[in-house]
Amino acid sequence: MTFLKVFRKDNETPVQKLARKSGIVPSALPNVLQNNAIATNVLYAVKNMMKIDDPAIVVQWNDPGFNDVPAIPGCRNGVAGQTLNAIVAHFTANGGTDVLGQNTVFLFRANIDLGFCEENLPLWVRHQNGIPDVCVSAFVIHKLTLGGQIDVAPFGYAFNR
Predict the structure, then answer these.
(1) CA distance 56 to 139
(2) In the chain, which residues have pLDDT < 50?
């Protein structure tokens, strides 16, 4: 009985469920998706908000990228307005929805919306030599079926080009 219970779907952690829905083992998920809180956020979006083919991005922010000037914490390059909140505002102003207000998962209604949003990211968000990046990693997720099967692909180029 115990052996069977371990493999029951209702006994899964959010990370295990996310891995199953993406068709890979949990240890093969990107690091950002191996966090149960983030996996829960993604699963919520997939189940309650996404339609088939909707893209969502999952971003793992890098605090040092917003604190490269110690005298002005939270601001990239020490410039007021170059903040995590400014990036979140950019995503939402360009068609993204901040899933559960966690500043980690952003849902878009079409690939073109996500593409335009990424294409128009402010230059200060992108990689700058000698300064930590604002993003450790980013991944795009697409809902493939009504049952919630998903596809996961790297999206780091958005911040690192």
Answers:
(1) 8
(2) 1-6
